[in-house]
Amino acid sequence: MKIAILQTGDVAANLLAKFGDYPNMFFSLFKRAGKTKSIFSWTVFDVRKDKYPVSPYDADGYLITGSRHGAYEPLPWIKPLSDYIRLLRAARRPLIGICFGHQIIAQSLGGRVEKSKKGWGVGRHEWPLIRHEDWMTPTASKLRLMAFHQDQVMKLPFGACRLAGNAFCPNAAYAIGGKILGIQGHPEFSPEFTDALLQKRGADMPLATTTAAYNSLKKPINRTTCAKWMATFFHSAAQN
Predict the structure, then answer these.
(1) What is the pTM of this model?
(2) Do 181 and 230 form a contact (C-beta atoms < 8 A)?
């Protein structure tokens, strides 16, 4: 499958040499899950620079990365990305959004995204599965991933099915029509990268928040399972 990564954010320059950029984190994630280049090929499009595939049919699936920006910010590239998301939905192309990607998809299709009054969600979080789909193999009862966000999807778009959530983040994962998947957590983030990100940005957060986040980093996560789910979702959505 040809997957187009729509890049919406960058790794900080002082972390880039050690951890790579966001697209490379996804390459590494799928490699961990056993999904090699023989199964997926990847092309990166920086949508902040108005870079997109010529046609939505130029890729078999699409993945929107995380970003430090909010889906509601009046940035010049937000509206074109929203328009493209609606184009992908109309063309029935498989689409996965991670963190900001999860949020901008929801907003573009009629949902609502806001900065949460509950504050930062950082460190290792877990969200119980509310609904199980056929592509969720191997099975798991909870999604356990690194998180790094203030914004949340407060209202799901019409037709969205909630897949996972908890009291802090009720809409942590959703699917729409077997073609679109949104995940608030970061399967591409390792505990080591999250630690480095906390060291860089933790001063802007309450001490209790960062302390809890640091203490969570050694708890188990199932990022490889999530990667397998994403890969299976791409294949399943492409066949529907």
Answers:
(1) 0.97
(2) yes
